[in-house]
Amino acid sequence: MDGFCEQVVKVSRTAKDNILAVVYVVMALVIPAVCISLAYVIVPYFIYIGMFLLMALIPLSIWLIKNQTIEYEYQIVDNYIAVDKIVAKRKRKKIVRIRLEDVKDIVKFNDDSYSGAKINKYFICVENIEAKGVYALSFRNEARGNCALVIKPDENILKGMRPKLVPELQVKVLKILRNTDENS
Predict the structure, then answer these.
(1) Residue 46 CB coordination number (10 Å)
(2) Average pLDDT across the chain, whole number
(3) SS3 label, residue 170
(4) What is the C-alpha separation between 147 and 153, in angstroms, rounded?
(5) Three-class SS of residue 28?
(6) Model's pTM, two decimal places?
(7) What is the pLDDT of residue 184?
(8) What is the pLDDT of residues 33-44, one digit of tens each?
(9) Residue 114 CA to chain centroid, in angstroms?
(10) pLDDT at 155 over 70
């Protein structure tokens, strides 16, 4: 193994996530309460159904709330960049794995001069695409055609990928590193 660099980017909770969490908890309490109240009107066995639903829906709502925690992990291993999506710190899904030699261009994603008109598929692995320091790495995939990986690399990832890129892109990465050093 020549080199190994990694970065974990946490996605912060949004208002939508908070609202969904409240809905999950309320529904986990309201549905069993309705069943228990129906037991007095229809059949007493609804109490058992309500208790069973209470015991099943509360852990389900906790599990759904925990699944809202998302992280992206960028890894530079040997000559590859791999991006994984981690859900609830226990489930990992591979998003993309690219040979660094196959990267055609590295550009700022939110730059006015960037037009992704020839890109068929975007792999967006950042919290906010409008944030500062978000870059698009364009590459060619046999199945999907022209693709772009949108990431927010830190200095460690940029330094790890630089030696494995083609010389023109190495110069671009050096310029990016200089700009981040000046802005720090």
Answers:
(1) 19
(2) 88
(3) helix
(4) 18
(5) helix
(6) 0.80
(7) 57
(8) 999 998 888 888
(9) 22
(10) yes
Are 81 and 67 spatial neighbours (Cβ–Cβ below 8 Å)? no
Using only the alpha carbons of the chain, give its radius of gyration: 23
Helices (H), 42-165: 46-66, 155-161
DSSP class of 162:
G
Separation between Cα atoms, residue 175 and residue 165, nearest integer Å: 14
Provide the 3-class DSSP secondary structure of residue 146: strand
Asked if residues 120 and 144 have their Cβ atoms less than 8 Å apart, the reply is yes
Q: Looking at residues 79-104, what average pLDDT do you find?
A: 92
The b/e string for 27-36 (b: 16+ C-beta within 10 A; e otherwise) is: ebeebbeebb
d(CA 32, CA 54): 5
Distance set, CA 61 to CA 10, 70, 93 (Å): 22, 17, 22
More confident residue, 9 or 3: 9
Average the pLDDT over 134-161 and give the result: 89
The rounded distance, in Å, linking the Cα atoms of 93 and 84 is: 6
Task: Tell me the DSSP string of 7-52.
Answer: EEEEEPP-HHHHHHHHHHHHHHHHHHHHHHHHHHHS-TTHHHHHHH
